[in-house]
Design goal:
36% of the residues lie in helices and 25% in strands. It is an alpha+beta fold. The strands form four sheets. Strands 1, 2, 3, 4, 5, 6, 7, 8, 9, 10, 11 and 12 form a twelve-stranded antiparallel beta sheet that branches. Strand 11 and strand 12 form a beta hairpin. The longest helix has 37 residues. 37% of the residues are buried.
Amino acid sequence: MVDVQGMTAAATTAAQLPQVLGGAPAAILMIDLRERKVVYANSSAIELTGDRVSLPVDIDVWGDAAGLTDLGGKRMSETQSPLSLVAGGIPVAGEPVAVHDAARRGSSATSEQREATEGRLLWVTGFALSGVLDMPVDGPDDERDLESRALVVFQQLSNTEHGERRRLEVLRDRAVVATEMSFTITDPRREDDPLIWVNPAFTRLTGYPLHEVVGKNCRLLQGPNTDRSAVDRIVGALRRREPITEILLNYRRDGTAYWNQVSISPVFDGTGELVNFVGVQNDVTERVLVEQERRTALADAEEARGQLRLLAEATTQMTGALDVADACERLARIVVPQLADLCAVDLLDRPGSATPVRMAVAARDADDEARLRTLGELRDYRVGAGSDTGAVLAGLEPVLLSELPESGTDRYDAAVGSPAAATYERLRMRSAMVVPVRARGRVLGSLTLMTQHPYGRRYTSRDLHLATDLAGRAGLTVDNARLYETEHAAAVTLQHSLLPALPTVKGLRLAARYLVGMDGNQVGGDWYDVLPLPDGAVGIAVGDVVGHDLRAAAAMGQLRGVVRSYAWDGGLPGSVLDRCDQLVQGLEMAAMATAVYARIEEPDLAGHRIVRYANAGHPAPLLLEPDGTLVRLDRQRSPMIGAVPDFGRRSGPGRAEAEVSCAPGSILLLYTDGITDIAGEDADERTDLLERTVAHLEPGTDAESVVEEVLRVCVPDGLRDDVALLAVRLDD
């Protein structure tokens, strides 16, 4: 038996399925065999002759009026035409005839009309009704008259079928179809438009013999899954006396279902009175099923492409996550609404933990997000403790719940009481999946996906596979993010351990910051230092060793120690950097580094201090004077440490220093290039932003406020490089 349930889904689109015999209803004639006259014609047949003849009319006259010829161009009246054969009681299983409008229109036909219809082909099928109608002798006169009638059907061959080779194939195929074509005739003048004749092909198609259907309406072929909208369209067309073609699900006498293409045409007599409806039925089940399979295959392919797009998008989005919380949030936002109406991501905060933390939720309705968080709190999910989420967290198999009851009495809420049940009710869950978020053999958490009543779909095993794949990718992202956070924290700790605590220096206010960039899981080479010297001066330094690895960090620590050592000896800034350069190159401590070293001398009687400085390829420090004047300390710049072999011994006198007098209330700002050199941005514009920020500081701003304002304005989110910042304010 045909799968009726599978067919029902295609019923609404049956009109789009392939047409077995063409989309337009056929032209139909009835011929009186005793008088060789056309007595009835439907609207399509009347269009062939226009108003040039009135019924009843001789078959040859009708053929000439319709412009019918054989394929050689001879008129029907001049040949042994299919009409003549049918009128002689000889059945015609299918023969081609041509329509020449010039012949039927005469000289009045325009060239456009002749061009539009010249060479049109019709396929003719005809047979006498006598011998196939088993009617009682006392039946109605109209029914007894049918035994002296013949039925002729003209079907048009489309223009695309006119190629010689293609035309022969079409004629051959249609000859086969015509012999199995099912015909019916009804009488609309009688109550309920009953069947008054069916041919043997109808019996073979439906299993109903003639005597069981005569006097009954053709709706006896309908059944429980017949598309009612298609039936309504047929009824409407019959009421309007219009031809119609529909494909609908019918049922044979034994109850088996089949797809039936039905073409119904009204037949009118010479006075325009409706006398019959002629129906042509064809079993198109095979073609419908093929079309359904094609559509299903296309739908499956599109679904597979959609799943691949979702996986690719999820991977891209989660790869760009900054931390664990961001990764979970991105995952939840990706699956809603593409895969779920509701989503919750729960993670165990550490291996061996028994209670997960709800890291992220997402929902079509924003109000449902708060409910999801509330449900997580009320349910108090625990590893292995009486819930699907707990079971998944304990390492058991993923859970697929294709259909959840709409009431709050399901297995979830029976154990947890009314608060969770009320929240459950408001979430309107229909279907759910719970899959583990797993990485490197450990369950890190769970991903819960849900659809909602009334429109959410039911999840299938295919959805479960997709959700499991997504959760696996999320698990790797979460695990990597956790490793990054751990390494990042360790790097920050190590980095800060290499930096000094700022000393308390009389007459100076100091503030410093060290920010680890996004690549901070690898320690860097940025550093700062403040060193009170034995002679009463104060040495300050900022530097940056090239690289972001342990070697750079080690070199930074060594270089800072060397600077402190040479500065402690009382050397001037230029000589301190020269000696550092020689030692670095001699001992191969680092590849290259930039640095600024300055000596802040003791104040004179007016409180002014001389600041001497030397710069080895480092960004220029800034001096903000008490009157708001900003000075860039960029004089006497020299190459980077380690850049020029034997610099200061073979290439000249070495690094020179510059000096500047600073009044009380002045501010010095030293920094590394992480604040100005940012990928994708202009370094000069970043430097201008820094200088404007410092220049706009209020008079009297302390060192801490200077550092905070510079970081607020000049450091972007997602900082990738390390930043060292040192501010020194000279007391008033």
